[in-house]
Amino acid sequence: MSRTIAYSPAYTLVPTYECFNRCTYCNFRTNPEQSPWLTLAAAQKQLQGLQGKGVIEILILSGEVHPLSPRRKAWFERIYDLCELALSFGFLPHTNAGPLSFEEMAKLKEVNVSMGLMLEQLTPILLQSVHRHAPSKVPSLRLQQLRWAGELRIPFTTGLLLGIGESEGDWQETLAAIAQIQTDYGNIQEVILQPHSAGSQQGWKGASFNTEKMPEVVAIAKSILPSEITLQIPPNLITEPQILLACLAAGARDLGGIGPRDEVNPDYDHLQDRALEALLAVDGWQLRQRLPVYPQYDSWLSPRLQVAVQQWRSTNGDGGKQKLW
User: Fold this and answer.
1) Residues 6 or more apart whose Cβ sits within 8 Å of residue 41
2) Quick one: pLDDT band at residue 317, thresholds 50, 70, 90?
3) pLDDT tens, 30-54?
4) In sequence order, which residues have a C-beta less than 8 Å from that of residue 86 and are 6 or more positions away?
5) Rounded average pLDDT over 230-236
6) Pairing of strands 254-258, 286-289
């Protein structure tokens, strides 16, 4: 069995924190039109500062402008332009900006090596509680995104948010739906298992998910999902080393994008490379870097993106000890 655990050296650009959804557990959003949008000039300055720092992935993570808003077109164009800018600096973009139209997804495929959207949970009961004021959290709408990504041959990341009012049976239902989409389209490269972690900005009084259950969740996911899907866990949200190591023993093999700040969970700092390496070494695991697109999906990319990816794949990572994949 391989004893390697992957992560993506990443940096997050936030086009805007404004969002028309009001998920009660959110620590990210601001009200519509109350958050300045990231300018291209400001993004260029940030990207210039990242050169030579080991960053590979640029995560474009945005709050959502309503699909019927007159500002939607400008919002989408800003996301597209940020991806273009990241590519021009040699980075690999991955966008997560909420549900998009089929046409928007097709357009972003031009400038993203992969994309993502959390399913969170499929149970409709959450529309009466934490998602009561979150129109884009309708389960059928989010499932449609995964199918469209499959039709468009977009390598995709999705996942579950744990501890927001769902049951263990709901985990199984959501995982089974992801497994079916993988069977139909083969486009799901990663599934994130993310414990709700209470933050200082959320309105909901719900407690953090009990991370002692995380190894059990990993085992359930491993038993339901096709073996080619990589299970990802966020190490900054699983702060007990023994629980993190137990998750790896249960089948998790990826730690996600790791950068200076977790924008979704700003109260929880990321461990950086050396600290993670030392923690994993306790049980004989080796940390390695990866790209935001897995090798089996390279052929799905446009020739332009394939060239950008191959430049990274031919570069030695991890201090020259192994190649990035």
Assistant:
1) none
2) very low
3) 999 998 999 999 999 999 999 999 9
4) 13, 47, 58, 60, 92, 93
5) 97
6) unpaired
| Angstrom distance (rounded) from CA 87 to CA 301 | 14
pLDDT at 297 over 70: yes
User: Which amino acid is residue 23, in one-letter code?
Assistant: C
Task: Name the residue type at position 119.
Answer: L
Query: 247-264 in b/e burial notation, b at 16+ Cβ within 10 A?
Result: bbebbbbbbbbbbeebeb
Pairing mode of beta strands 316-317, 322-323:
antiparallel
Q: Which residue has the tokens 């049976």?
A: 169
Going by pLDDT thresholds of 50, 70 and 90, the confidence category of residue 1 is low
Please tell me the predicted confidence (pLDDT) of residue 322.
Answer: 40
Tell me how far apart the alpha carbons of residues 149 and 187 are, in angstroms, rounded to a whole number: 7
The Cα 247–Cα 238 span in angstroms is: 9
**Which residues contact residue 84 at a Cβ distance below 8 angstroms, ignoring those fewer than 6 apart?**
111
Query: For residue 293, which amino acid is it?
Result: V
* Token pair 């309708």: residue: 138
Degrees to nearest 5, angle at CA 67 with 62 and 68: 140
Round the average pLDDT of the chain to a whole number and report it. Answer: 95
E strands in the chain: 4-13, 57-61, 92-96, 114-116, 156-162, 188-195, 230-232, 254-258, 286-289, 316-317, 322-323
Between strands 188-195 and 230-232, the pairing is: parallel
Task: Give me the helices (H) in 213-297, please.
Answer: 214-224, 241-250, 273-281
